[in-house]
Amino acid sequence: MIWESLDAELKAIEAEGLTRRRRIVDSPVAPEMVVDGKPVLAFCSNDYLGLASHPEIAEAMAEGARHWGAGSGASHLVSGHLRPHHQLEEALAAFVMRQRALYFCTGYMANLAVIPALVGRGDAVFADKLNHASLIDAVQLSRADSHRYRHLDLEHLEFLLATSTAPRKLIATDAIFSMDGDAAPLEALYELAEKYDTWLVIDDAHGFGVMGPQGRGSAAAVKLIPSPRVVYMGTLGKAAGVSGAFVAGSAKVLEWLLQKSRTYIFTTASSPAVACALLKSLDLIAAGEARRQHLASLIQRLRDGLAPLCAGRGWQLMDSDTPIQPLVIGGNAAALDLTRALLAQGIWVPAIRPPTVPKGQARLRITLSAAHSAAQVDALVNALATLAAPADGHLAATENLS
Question: In this structure, which of 67, 97, 236, 255 has its CB flanked by the most CB atoms within 10 Å?
Answer without folding.
Answer: 236
